[in-house]
Sequence to fold (654 residues):
Amino acid sequence: MKVSNATPKVKTDFKTALENRFNPKDLKAMGKEFVSLSRGGTMNRDLFIANAFVFLLGTRLLTSRDKDEKREIKIRDIPTIIIAVVGVPIIQNFFEKPIQNKLGFGFMEKGSKPGLIATIANGIFKGPKEGAVSYGKLEDWYVFNKEKTATGFEGFTKRLEDRGGNLKKIFSSFGGEIKEKIDTMFGKDKKVIDNETFRKTLNGSPEGKKVLSLVEEAFKQEKNAAFKQASWARTIPTLLGFGITLALIGLCIPGLNIAITERVNKKRKAEELAAKQSQGVQEAPKAEQAPVETNLIKQYKK
Amino acid sequence: MKIQTIPNTNYEANPNQRNLAGKPANTSFKGLGQIGKDIASGTFRMTEKGGFFLEFLIVDSLSLILPRIIIGLNRDKDKIGHLNYQAGAEEAGRELLSGPSMNLIPMAMASFAVRKLMPAIKINKDTFEGINESFKNVINKNTGISDKSQLTRKLAEQVFDDSFGTEELKGYRARFVDTLEKATQSKPRLALVRKFANSKLFGKTPKPDAFDDAEKAFNDLVFEMNNKAAKGMAPLDSYAIGLKKLDAEGKIENAPTSSKTFFEDFHNYTKDSRGMVEKFIKKDAAQSVEEFFKKASSNVKKGKIGLAALAFFVVGGFLLYLPKVYQIGKVSPAAQSAKRAQDSVEKEGGAK
Fold:
């Protein structure tokens, strides 16, 4: 007897993912905050795009001389401006959670994930935004200041846990003796051990407590290995954001533009050739008839 | 014969055993990979402070400005015999002036507007409402005070009471008020530029700045307070200041802000004659407190929108005028290139 899965695994297709990230209410909120500057004085991203569309592209379209230029502006300039302005935050946003989960170092703010529009339109997202924290905050999370932290080392590690960190991975990043002891206690394989089990095991043995005290000392250093690794983890989404944006603008869009231009030219040449050929076919019968007529006339005149 | 092995306890078979004394066990060998990671993290940490301006500058320079300058310089290089300086210069002019200026112009305008016209524009809307609430409480408790410095001091006290007014933090009140009051001192102009010019990059020692030092002391104090008051888990945001404001229905709502921006916000809020404190003192006696704050909020909102709209059109005007600036010579490089192509075809045709 075949028993089908009670809850079959549904693959989230692109359309559904987009629907989840796109909230039409955000558009209305964006409209209200549209004309505003950021704290640093720059135009908000959506206002910037509008400005570029009106004054850069608008004038180019008006002064363009032919169909080709207009097409090139649409294919090359419109995506370039949009990607240059919103590419980095959107791509960064996309990679943050997966990288945090994969590497086991928490570097994201507690809050709700903003939709696509809220990512690019400043000031419309209410409440804490889930996104990569600043490096300063990361330093606060990964450097232990014993005198100032009233909740002690336990509160410090709880915060790391709370922000999505995997304690085994974080502690192991210190390397050396700490890593050796952890490997001895939990095995060298890359098995993921959840934080609760990890904590219980460490607190339950003298060897484990030694590890905890070593880790506490390690965290006191300002540029400790865990902080460096966390900084790197936090940097990866931004790096990807810049890298992919630059690749899209510098390589993909010009490439697409060239490919489309060539295709249009080929089509045009083919049409011209076809037109020439059809003209040539019409001329041939005319030439054949002419000699016959003159002959008849000549014959008549005779 | 039994051979007795003598255990080697006297020398370090494992170099890591050096760390048994409780010293941190960080690996001392840094692979190239770790150096690369550190450089990347450090670079992006520096660019973080630049915000959207720096992010766009990097994307614009690397993907648009540089490639187009290179293409321009190499245009018809074979036909001319050397780099095409006019085409390169025009590409440089157009791209360098259009991209970065779209950010620099609004930044300059905002800086002027905040400094000379309406300092409260810079304050985030929720934070502004939050400080207003605290100020309203001050006014209601202290009717009749018309001394600006006294009101400012009372405002600082009220901010403490509203955000940190718990038993265990009571001892910090005086320090908080003293430190926050220092925000009213003048802020030097072009602070970032000055800092850059005097930084270690050029081998100079950074000059001490009273405002910066006070701001740092304020941040450290808030850090200490938040960590002291935390229960169970270390605070997620050690620099949080929990202001409160009233929402549309009059209910109390949180208006959290960070000490990192609050110090400057307090400076702008209380700034000399354009700040809210003196404006309140000089207000019309007939106007009620509620009316004053309602009008102030509405004015700030209008100021923000007006500034943004003006910046939009100034940038637009600049972009429209820009071609006249970067165009060198009467004939564009594109037309020159087309002419060169035509000439070379004629030459070839003539030779035949």
Summary: Confidence is low (pLDDT under 50) at residues 12-28 of chain B.
